[in-house]
Amino acid sequence: MTRVHIKRTAGDLQTNADLAPLVRNGDLAVVSAYYSLDTGQVEVLTGAPSA
Fold it and tell me: How far apart are CA 27 and CA 34, in angstroms?
C-alpha cells in the first residue's frame, strides 16, 4: 500500500499545474522511491534517470 501511495503522489506532482511544464521541458524530474528503514535500501519505483 505504501508503494501505491508513493506512485500516486509522484503522479500528482508530475501533473501539478505549476510543475507539469517543468517536467514536460525536462527541467524537472519526479522520481518516486521507497526507503526501507529495516535494510537501509532505496527502491526506485518510477522516474529513474537513464544512464
Answer: 23
User: Residue ranges per domain, the chain?
Assistant: 2-46
CB 3 within 8 A of CB 34: yes
Residues 6+ apart with CB under 8 A from 27: none
- The pairs formed by 9-12 with CB atoms below 8 angstroms and a separation of 24 or more are 10/45, 10/46, 10/47
pLDDT tens track for 1-42: 999 999 999 999 999 999 999 999 999 999 999 999 999 999
